[in-house]
Give the backbone structure.
Amino acid sequence: MKKLIPLLCCLLLLLPCMVEGKEKVIDLKYKPREKVKVKPKKVPSVKIFIEDIRDGRSNPKIIGENKEEKTIQIETADAGGARQFLRGVLKKEFQGNGFSLVESAGAAQTIITGTLVKFWTLEKSRYKSDIQLKISVKNKAGLVAYNKTYAGTGGNFGHSLSEENYQESISNAATSLVDKIFSDASLLRALSEAPAMERGASSSPAGKAVFGPR
């Protein structure tokens, strides 16, 4: 009996690993290690509303994989988690850089819409995150002044299956995405020009799309 006690203790310690599932659910929080570096050269003096982002991926809950030994799927508890997270990031960074944001389309002069194309983190020896977002700029009448797909990447090292490390890697990709947006002079110009567009006018040339596998 005395010999069984140490064995049982070892089994109890190993039990969490033995019964570990094939999925890990994480909470998405904006915790970047790498801050937004680009400052917009000219902030348009228009009232902007950032609409709810649409998720164009086939399974919105799945946001990545751990492939260190066996494949473990990384998910969010809410199917709207990724798009809500990204909209929150855009609102925070736009407002923090002097853009005038409003809380309804009715109060806006210009509207930003977005479709999430890719939101993925692969964990092997390190974390690597990729985000792709198609953005359209339109006026209150729905006329599109500009559209383009932007891509951001981020990564870091950390503990295996760490929720905090996933949050940091994803957030770093989000700040990289915002850098690309703030660097685009054509998009910044479209934000100002959209309210002046007349019905039937041609839209500004769209940027090249950068579509990913997810």
Remarks:
- Residues 11-19, 199-205, 208-214 have pLDDT under 50 and may be disordered.
- The first strand starts at residue 23 and ends at 26.
- The radius of gyration is 21 Å.
- Residues 61 and 118 are 12 Å apart (CA to CA).
